[in-house]
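Task card 7
Instruction: Convert sequence to structure tokens.
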Amino acid sequence: MDGDWLRRRLVPPLERRIFELGAAPGESRPAAVLVALQPGPDGGVLLTRRTAHLPNHAGQVSLPGGTIDPGDPTPEAAALREAEEEIGLDPRQVEVIGRLDEFVLATGFHIIPVTALLKSEPALRPSPDEVAAIFRLGFKTLLDPALPEWRTATWRGGTRQFPVWPHPDHVIWGATAWILHRLSESLRATL
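Output:
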């Protein structure tokens, strides 16, 4: 997947949707995550596994990102700042493309996914306080029409289906899996 191919498929939509996965938007803290795409035959989206001692989402797979601070002028600026803090990604190595649909979570976050292309192979440094591992989920997996796997669980008195993305070393579920599902739908839309 080259950069032009990804740009054409991720043109910002005229209208973004907000998916509520538990809480109402007014009750949630705004957060931004960077959906950083590495073009090329071995490319994919950068993911992290959070350290086990964090107060929120400890040990889970996530996209680089976090709470939008008052000093962040835009969600894009917040996502780039957080990616630099968490994985050492230099913002000059990134071309922001747009945004995906937003997600409001029962954990109290309103996540705004910001899509971006990596201009070159980045030299990444995980923050030992926040990130236990950095890895990629490849485009081959994201474009596979048989994925993600769908599982069912009982939660808050109801039965819900949720996506899980296969990876040999990590379990990718939760908000990250939903964001990747929307990304994969965008990438597959014009195939």
